[in-house]
Specification:
The protein is an alpha+beta fold. Helix content is 34%, strand content 28%.
């Protein structure tokens, strides 16, 4: 139920920002989310787009001055190809590559009659944002599935309020007012997902956290759930799950 919402979420701005903040903690997830995605890069005051390939490597980019910006990991192969086309011997190519390795940052170094290089140090790349929000449908899906797991599917399916959500998630008419879904600032990106039943204030209230910083509260109007407060967390570092009831 609602798999398209999860696919949309991967390309939403909040998820891409959170994943970028957690690149060191969650490298595999960072790679899977960002592979072949567009980034905004700034160098010497010039802004342009690049495609993130994998393992920190970005696509090559021709700059306004005619130079070619190449990822360090690909520099040796690309230079070797160009120098071979220019007829340089293996020894001459090896000497040129040695000059590249020993070149200081931000200085132009001639490595052949045709080519000069500059090793860049201050390159800033961030995910190119599109304005795409996290689908609120996904937030409702999380609440519905948590409620079924915690309170029992029979109980939830007997609730008219939850049936409005279920019908909508299955492709029916949207009868759940979006004003009952409130986003707030989760402050810091952290490697966990979580959902909590916060009790009735005065109606059933749920809090959702995705990557710590993506934070929502969902209010189910005209519904009280007479049970203890419950917090579920999924630790993304070791894939462990925890439930605490108050």
């Amino acid at each position: 139920m609602g798999h398209q919402f999860e696919n949309e979420a991967k390309n939403s701005d909040p998820v891409r920002i959170a994943i970028s903040n957690l690149a060191e903690a969650l490298p595999n997830l960072y790679e899977s989310i960002n592979r072949n995605s567009e980034y905004s890069t700034t160098i010497d005051g010039q802004d342009f787009s690049q495609i993130y390939r994998n393992s920190g490597i970005f696509s090559a980019k021709r700059l306004n001055d005619g130079s070619l910006l190449v990822d360090e990991a690909e520099t040796k192969n690309i230079l070797t190809q160009h120098l071979k086309k220019d007829g340089l011997s293996k020894a001459e190519i090896a000497k040129a590559l040695d000059l590249v390795s020993n070149a200081p940052f931000e200085h132009i170094v001639d490595i052949s009659n045709q080519y000069s290089i500059k090793k860049r140090q201050n390159i800033h790349s961030t995910p190119k944002l599109t304005g795409k929000p996290l689908p609120k449908n996904l937030i409702l899906k999380i609440v519905y599935e948590f409620a079924c797991a915690r309170f029992g599917e029979r109980v939830i399916e007997a609730s008219p309020q939850f049936n409005l959500i279920r019908t909508f998630l299955l492709g029916g008419k949207d009868q759940f007012c979006s004003s009952n879904i409130k986003q707030f600032d989760g402050l810091v990106s952290l490697p966990f997902h979580g959902i909590a039943f916060e009790g009735n204030t005065p109606f059933a209230t749920f809090q959702i956290r995705l990557f710590g910083s993506i934070a929502y509260k969902v209010f189910i109007p005209n519904l009280e759930i007479l049970t203890v407060k419950t917090v579920y967390t999924h630790n993304l570092l070791d894939n462990s799950e925890h439930i605490i009831s108050d």
